[in-house]
Queue: 2 jobs
Job 1
Amino acid sequence: MLALWYGHAWAPGPWFVVFPLLWIALIAGVLFFVARRGRSWHTRSGEAALGELYARGEISEEEYRKRQRVLRERPR
């Protein structure tokens, strides 16, 4: 389909399809990295809270190591 643009024939070409796909890929990539960073932040904050419990002497070293393994083995 040709369109007239100031008296010249213009055809959209392959970029008519490529640019929307690039935008979709960019938005999906940003969402993926934001979601992934959010999960790792929660894991780190859990480990920090666990470290504080251990530092205050509220849990033993064995309990600390056990809970730390659980936090790190959690599906991401």
Note: Residues 23 and 29 are 10 Å apart (CA to CA).
Job 2
Amino acid sequence: METFWGPDIEHWFGDSPRLAPFGEVVAQEIDPLVYELERRGPATDGHRVRFDPRYAEAGRRVWASGILEAEPLEQAGLFFLLTHAGESGHACPVTCTAGLIRALRLHGSDELRERFLPRLLETDYDRCERGAQFLTEEQGGSDVGANLTRAVRDDDGWRLHGEKWFCSVADADQFVVTARPEGAAEGTRGIGCFLVPRELDGRPNGFTIRKLKDKLGTRALATGEIVLDGAAAYPIGDLEDGFRIAAGVVLNTSRWLNAVGSAAVMRRAYLEAAAFARQRAAFGQPIVEFPLVRESLAVMRAEAEAALASSLEVTRLVDSEEPDDVAYHRILVNANKFSTSAAATRAVRRGIEVLGGNGTIEDFSVLPRLWRDAIVFESWEGTHNVLCAQVARDLERFGTLGLVLGRSRGVEPRIDAALDSLAERLATYDPLHFRRQLDRLVRAVQGAALVRAYAPTAELHIRRRVVPGYNPEADPEYPGLLDALVEEPVLR
């Protein structure tokens, strides 16, 4: 595959001059490097992380794209292209660095920004510094309010003591760390948000990597357990705003880009499956001619474009300060991450089925790697149940259900009808059924976004995912909808 850029990407992201060249770089250079890196994972001596030299080769290409200095839409476009290679060992560092940049810009002191921002924005990989976020602890997981890491004040500032359990980008140069200052309140109200440099004056800054994790996916990425023993730390913003900054800025940046990445994983899976189906013959004809294969391909394409459409809805809200946009972003960034990451795993699984046994062979297809990475994407930045519970709390606390529903109304009568049927059920929160209801809400948001974007997949998506009780068997137009999507090429 020569490039992951195509006319459909220009349709969604515009004509940024960076996109087409980077699509070629990812396809021709980064993706082959990642294939090798998956087999030669990182190691640690307790402080430094050692990688195969090809890790830095891939990193140089990623950072040279200017992805971290781009505005949100262009940044999302570059990230979308990058994650056609899966996590690749560098998508998570990009995401975490982007979150730290946003936190410093929005809440860091002038002194903190002047000291730490320039290297985060550097496009030369050999000179840049990368960010990480170390929030999770063994006893709490997503329950950050249960964290035990302590922040102790001394004559020189703040020192952190404690352990962090799931720390991706363990090789980063700057860490966002949550810790509880001595005497602070229990729960999330007492959590502070700190920046911890990896080194001070060329020496380790009070931390040790206990071990690196042996993960199902994202295997080129260094994820470890971190011990903090007197690490010098600098508050980002006011201490009492720590959890709001860590979750509302840092984690929400990751949730936004995680969803963009899930959409890209789906698109890559579709491209691989569609190309295979056109050249693989069985029983006297290319397998793309078989109805069930055509259905799988059309559904994969529809799911990928739906995920991209809703993720770009989030993208357009990222920098807005308009109160309704801020309120809508708070809901959609969490709901969208939940729905798109779950859809990605299912879509890749469909692609593996199209390839049959070939879809399980690592040196034949990228799909096993994409499937493993997609499963990790599902758990990053909050499990599905945690995100759904957060959305339910926010809808009730801020009374924003009407605002959220209103953003997708007036586009298509069937979408309005679906939203009407959801409104009462979402308002009377039922913890057993809310997750299903929230996924239906995201599907309606996606339908409206696809219609607004004149996406060719809009009609299939609305029938399959928005119209209650839709039955393809009773729809004589269903085969034609599938054929139209399978026959129209994405790459030219």
Note: The chain has three domains: 7-120, 131-239, 244-487.
